[in-house]
Amino acid sequence: MGHRQQGGPLPAPLHEDRFRHHYTRDELKGWVPRVRALAERSEQVHVLFNNCCAQASVQAAGTMSQLLAGRPDGHDDGDRVREALPDS
User: Fold this and answer.
1) CA distances from 51 to 21, 32, 42, 68 (A)
2) 35-44: buried (b, 16+ CB within 10 Å) or exposed (e) per residue?
3) Nearest alpha carbon to residue 60 among 81, 29, 84
4) Gap between the terminal Cα atoms of the chain
5) Are 53 and 19 spatial neighbours (Cβ–Cβ below 8 Å)?
6) If you ran DSSP here, which 8-state letter would residue 71 be given?
7) Which pTM value belongs to this model?
């Protein structure tokens, strides 16, 4: 077990620490082809993020929405993505 400089033990990791992950744009890019493939075979696709601390899931959802709205050919599918998002 680690110790603080004053000699006391370090507190145990908080249970919520595992929900604090902030996905990078590159991490989320890897999911875009998978989500698009599912969307081709489904009426609706729901992407859920279980990193709820400090609004990390809200930020990840926003980034994912941006990634899904853009297409490699430069066209924007944003309207279709925005229609599926709940109003805030």
Assistant:
1) 6, 18, 25, 20
2) eeeebeeeee
3) 29
4) 44
5) yes
6) -
7) 0.60
Average pLDDT, the chain: 75
Closest among 76, 74, 71, 63 to 25, alpha carbons compared: 63
CA distance 62 to 24: 12
29-76, pLDDT tens digit by residue?
Answer: 999 999 999 999 999 999 998 887 778 888 999 999 999 998 543 344
- Rounded to 5 degrees, what angle do the CA atoms 66, 69, 64 make? 35
- 3-state secondary structure labels for all residues of 7-40: CCECCCCCHHHHHCCCCCHHHHHCCHHHHHHHHH
Give the whole-angstrom CA distance, residue 28 versus residue 53: 18
Whose tokens are 């493939």? That residue is 37
pLDDT tens digit string along 65-82?
A: 999 998 543 344 555 555
> What span, in angstroms and rounded, lies between the C-alpha atoms of 61 and 49?
7
